[in-house]
Write a structure and sequence with these properties.
heterodimer; A: mainly alpha; MetI-like fold; globular; B: alpha/beta; Rossmann fold; 8-stranded mixed beta sheet; about 25% strand
């Protein structure tokens, strides 16, 4: 077990380097120039720009730039934004907690509502209730999240007036509920469907028949015997979903004006702030890796047939 | 509508309990399943009874309705698509089919328990065997977790699982096939039920382990004076442990007899065919007999006797009239207790 965890943690190093390199190269390949962007529409002196680039180290070959970035990173230096002169670490520090809260709300919504819906449908597979769930989830899967986001904003903020259309800079918890629901709705559909299938399948298994034959009360049959087995695939999905929710918040944060990671990445992308984009994406990758490690460990807890050595 | 055996129960049992009357009495049971292709008539009027301490072997091919009958008794049929349009299942004189869910649940496991064929899939893979055994005591007797575990160890000892104390927290996949089946048996025995239904308990095991498991089951049955319904297609297993046999075909009982009588003189061509298809040492080198054809399609059971398309002795009457399960007598009319046959030509079969 300990060895397994150690191996997995060591595996994160190449993944970490690889993903930073990839994002770094992509930023480099993008057209546009952060120094040029500072000047906007105005005409500027080419020599001045060249000087600024030299000061920022942007005239170096890409490999050297990457090396400098990486060495900086290992010393805890995420770099500095060119336009605002703010350290990237500070930008991340402001944005990350908001997105983490948003993602956690969305995750809780996904897990609780999705599993509940899936269990209700799976217990009565192929009934009206089940078909209803299928239609609802199909709708959630096929409607893009920005459409859903604008619709939710229109109804709940503009028509009903229950919430403010935009989330304030403080991003209080109650303000994040609607964005979290929109953000989590796609995953919700997947979780509900996965749970439904898993429950319906396990319901037909031999050990469920045994549980009935043992004369157990119904809530115990479902709550203990059925759920323990049905949750195994769902937990796997939920784990990887944490990363997806954090990364997928870009659109939702844009719609509701949540000043989180997505907002910051989007801004940085527009002004070609390479170090900001790489820093944030890398952090999301790390969250993803840690979440999937936790899921794999939880997997062994849920299913005793799986043992790690 | 299928024609029903209007005959009374199967043979009078030897050791009746509770002031007469058998422990379990199945009367004219019908079970059907609704499918896309039509209604599958899996059980078509089964009558049998079991008394305390008695072993009834139910014999038949796959699809003959023997397991479905057992599931109907246990109340674990999938309904829908299953349906019991007709019949009674009396346990100590009370019809279980008219009971409420809770009443029925209390009988399951406590009064009637079941042993399933494939112990690996029938045990929950993610719960330890100790938990699954202890659950019986926790649910039905309200014991604490700790006491239930102690009871589980005791049970595992009783079915002779070595090192029970160390293994109580192991999971089903960590046991061998024979040990798993012992755990199934232990689970069924936990609350010392009056009746155990064993649905092909040894089919998934290899031959040496089969014998051990059967011996264990027979021994425990004697010890607790339980009724036992042994569902099997293995005639060899039956001969050693059963008191009486009911042979099923296409959802009906075609012959009942005390165990040794049946082997000596079968009164139904189907039983004859089954006995002839047992490999025998003294016929080494000869071709093994097999009953021609396939079991009938339960969507379209042949008219008359369901066995007629495969029967070597079928006559015109077999294709039109359903034979009732009637008492079989000696040539001189002397009574043969417990023997019945559902064949128009049982006389020729048994005496010819």
């Amino acid at each position: 077990m300990g060895r397994y965890v150690a191996r997995r943690l060591l595996q994160m190093i190449p993944v970490f380097i690889g993903s930073t390199l990839l994002v770094f190269l992509m930023m480099y390949a993008l057209p546009g120039d952060p120094v040029r962007a500072l000047a906007g529409e105005q005409a500027v002196d080419q020599a001045q720009i060249a000087q600024m680039k030299k000061d920022l180290g942007l005239d170096l070959p890409i490999w050297q730039q990457y090396w400098n970035y990486l060495t900086g990173l290992f010393q805890g230096d995420f770099g500095t934004q060119i336009a605002t002169q703010r350290p990237v670490a500070e930008v991340i520090g402001d944005a990350f907690p908001i997105t983490v809260r948003l993602a956690l709300f969305a995750f809780a919504f996904t897990a609780i509502v999705g599993i509940a819906m899936g269990v209700l449908a799976g217990l009565k597979a192929d009934t009206f209730r089940d078909r209803g769930l299928l239609v609802v989830t199909l709708l959630l899967i096929s409607v893009p999240s920005f459409v859903l986001g604008f619709l939710a904003q229109y109804f709940f903020a503009h028509q009903l007036g229950w919430v403010e259309p935009n989330v304030s800079a403080l991003a209080e918890s109650h303000e994040l509920i609607l964005p979290a629901v929109v953000l989590g709705s796609l995953s919700l559909a997947y979780v509900a469907r996965l749970t439904r299938t898993s429950v319906a399948e396990n319901l037909r298994s031999d050990y469920m028949r045994t549980a009935v034959a043992k004369g157990l009360p119904r809530r115990r049959i479902v709550g203990v015997h059925l759920m323990r087995n049905s949750m195994i695939p769902v937990v796997t999905f939920l784990g990887t979903d944490i990363g997806t929710l954090m990364g997928g918040a870009v659109v939702t944060e844009g719609i509701f004006n949540v000043q989180g990671v997505g907002y910051a990445v989007f801004g940085a992308l527009k002004s070609r702030e390479g170090s900001t984009v790489v820093g944030i994406v890398t952090l999301i990758v790390v969250v993803y890796l840690v979440a999937s490690l936790l899921v794999d460990l939880l997997y062994a807890v849920l299913d005793p047939r799986i043992r790690y050595a | 509508m299928t024609i029903i055996d209007k005959t009374a129960d199967v043979p009078a049992s030897r050791g009746s309990t509770d002031g007469g009357g058998p422990l379990l009495d199945v009367r004219d049971l019908h079970v059907e399943f609704k499918t896309r292709d039509g209604v599958v008539k899996a059980v078509n009027g089964v009558n049998y009874s079991v008394s305390a301490g008695e072993t009834l072997a139910v014999l038949g091919e796959s699809g003959s309705g023997k397991s479905v009958t057992a599931q109907a008794i246990m109340g674990i049929l999938d309904m829908p698509p299953g349906r019991i349009p007709q019949g009674e299942i009396l346990f100590r004189g009370q019809d279980m089919l008219t009971m409420g869910y809770e009443e029925r649940r209390k009988i399951r496991g406590q009064k009637i328990a079941m042993i399933f064929q494939d112990a690996l899939s029938s045990l929950n893979p993610v719960l330890s065997v100790g938990y699954q055994l202890g659950e019986m005591f926790r649910v039905h007797q309200g014991l604490s977790k700790k006491d239930a575990k102690a009871k589980a160890v005791e049970l595992m000892d009783r079915v002779r699982i070595p090192a029970a104390k160390e293994r109580v927290d192991d999971y089903p996949h960590q046991f061998s096939g024979g040990m798993r089946q012992r755990i199934m048996i232990a689970m069924a025995l936990a609350l010392e039920p009056d009746l155990i239904i064993a649905d092909e308990p040894t089919t998934a095991l290899d031959v040496t382990v089969q014998a051990q498991v059967m011996d264990l089951l027979a021994e425990l049955q004697r010890e607790y004076n339980m009724g036992l319904i042994l569902i099997t297609h293995d005639l060899g297993v039956v001969a050693d442990v059963a008191d009486k046999i009911a042979v099923m075909y296409a959802g009906r009982i075609v012959e009942t007899a005390p165990v040794h009588e049946l082997y000596k003189r079968p009164a139904h061509p189907y039983t004859r065919g089954l006995l002839d298809s047992i490999p025998r040492l003294d016929q080494k080198g000869q071709e093994l007999y097999a009953i021609k054809g396939l079991p009938p399609n339960l969507l379209k059971i042949p008219s008359g006797c369901a066995f007629n398309p495969r029967c070597p002795k079928a006559q015109d009457v077999c294709r039109t009239d359903v034979p009732a399960l009637l008492s079989v007598t000696e040539r001189d009319g002397g009574e043969l207790p417990g023997r019945r046959s559902a064949c128009h030509f049982w006389k020729e079969q048994i005496h010819g």
